Amino acid sequence: MVNRHVIGAHYGLRDWLLQRITAVIMLVYTIGLVFFLFAAAHASFEGWRALFANTGVRVLSTVTVMALLLHAWVGVRDIWMDYIQPLAIRLTMHVLTILWLLVSFVYAVKVLWGV
Question: What's the domain count of the chain?
Fold first, then answer.
């Protein structure tokens, strides 16, 4: 009989589920945006501006950006964990990735909300 020791808290399942949920959020948002493109084939700049002036669209866009960044974090983190062996370099890459994602989020909020 083999004694198996389970280490960790099932992070693989949580990350797998997070990847799928964020992908569905991004897919739904993309389908909605494509639908708008077809519905408003001759939309002008003012039409786009009016669309993104709507608070609901801004909130959905912000949620989609957060989903995109979480999706990217799980994927890039796994790449660093799989392919970078020295702990100091891996930790540095993790920190740089987190900073890049946070700056990207702040910039996206600035663009979407005009802050």
Answer: 1
